[in-house]
Amino acid sequence: DAQSTPHVYVPGHGDGVTLLLLHGTGADEHDLLDLGAALAPGAALLSPRGAVEENGANRWFRRMGMGRFDVPDVIRRAGDLADFTGLAAREYGLDPAKIVAVGFSNGANIAAALLLLRPDLLRGAALFAPAAPLQGREPDRVDLAGASVFVGAGRADTITPYDQAALLSDQLTERGADVAFHQHPGGHELPGPVLRAATAWSAQMR
Ligand code: MLT
Prior knowledge:
Strand order of the largest sheet: 1-3-2-8-9-10-11
Bound molecules: D-malate
């Protein structure tokens, strides 16, 4: 069951939206709770810990080096995360049609993988500093009509380069997702103006 995965669950009060919070490399299930509360006040928060360890740092999938993803592991771990999310939705009585992922960096990458590999799981996603998780592979022609996605990308990001976020946005748009793409001049971070734009996006998508 979902309890075998370390996670934090905060019940919501309001419109039944659940944010699936997906932390970046080296963080844990507590890292994005404040971000989630700011993005969607009143939403339930479901925040698991990445199951992969890299030199003591929690992650969502393995990589060979910086920016070189183990794509079969991305696919496997996205399946595991989708299974956890489904189990948790049942155990906590969450509306499975109102789950929105929020991820930063490595967490944004696994959220993007969920969208592309499990297109029915999420209502949408806020992806901060994401890359295209399947790298050179062309994702399947899934149908993402009805999914709303916010992308925040820094033009000076050296960890997940801007072109990767742009490629991901194109892949999502081509599959029917409604993508709000916000670029900023900074690097691998989530600057205030992007957070404010994402908060406005979240309010109107609900
Ligand atoms: C990744 O490995 O997913 C990205 O390169 C960013 C990160 O280090 O989290």
